Amino acid sequence: MQDMPKNMTVPDLPLIAEMALVCFHKSVIHGTGGFAKMDIAAGTRVIKYVGEKITKAESLRRCESNNEYIFSLGDESDFDGNVPWNPARFLNHSCDPNCEAEWAGEHLWIIAKRDIRAGEELTFNYGYDLQDYREHPCRCGATGCVGYIVAAEFFEHVKRQNRFASEVRLET
Ligand SMILES: [Zn+2]
Fold first, then answer.
1. pTM for this model (two decimals)
2. Cβ < 5 A residues, ion ligand 1
3. Vertex 103: Cα angle to 52 and 141 (nearest 5)
4. pLDDT digits (tens, 9 = 90+) for 113-141
5. 119-128 exposure pattern, b = at least 16 Cβ within 10 A, e = fewer
6. Of 152, 149, 101, which is closest to residue 122 (Cα–Cα)?
7. pLDDT digits (tens, 9 = 90+) for 6-25
């Protein structure tokens, strides 16, 4: 376990997040989402993304059981955010997100990419690669949504595949 404050029980932690910049409720994108409680300026550290540092072997095992909250930390270890004391795991993916995940020293932060208005849903790009991307459809609703949850560097590839798929459908 990492970042779990002493003398605190797991159910308390989402409440602490509630008191800061983010609240959690039902999202039109997917399930529960995180929302700005107040106006947030670009560059603000919105919420810390906490979790467990794990080995690559353990990471592989967890990925095989469909854990979608794992970040790569390089060649040696990974980071699993799928823990009850990490309310940031409720933040949804978007193709046009208003936040981004960024390492600051030892900690992974969700940082505002632009000024965010109170009430806006907070989103970041999950940074998934292309493996099995068709199993992760995106319903973010952004103009220019590519239809699948992938890192921005793969948007053009996925758009080309989408165009190709629709042309094939038209011909048959
Ligand atoms: Zn999208």
1. 0.83
2. 95, 138, 140, 145
3. 90
4. 999 999 999 999 999 999 889 999 999 99
5. eebbbbbbbb
6. 101
7. 554 555 555 555 568 999 99
2 CA distance to ligand 1 middle (Å): 31
CB 98 within 8 A of CB 110: no
Six token digits for residue 51: 């979790």
d(CA 91, CA 149): 13
| The two three-digit tokens of residue 54, written as one number | 């794990």
Tokens of 150: 């992938």
How far is the centre of ligand 1, averaged over its atoms, from the C-alpha of 12 (Å)? 32
Residue with tokens 């919420």: 47
pLDDT band at 1 (very low <50, low <70, confident <90, very high): very low
Bridge partners, residue 65, by sequence: none
* 171 Cα: distance to centroid of ligand 1 (angstroms): 27
| Dihedral of the alpha carbons of 93, 99, 100, 104, in degrees to the nearest 10 | -140
Q: Please tell me the distance from the alpha carbon of residue 139 to that of residue 158, in angstroms, as a whole number.
A: 15
Give the residue carrying structure tokens 């590519």.
146
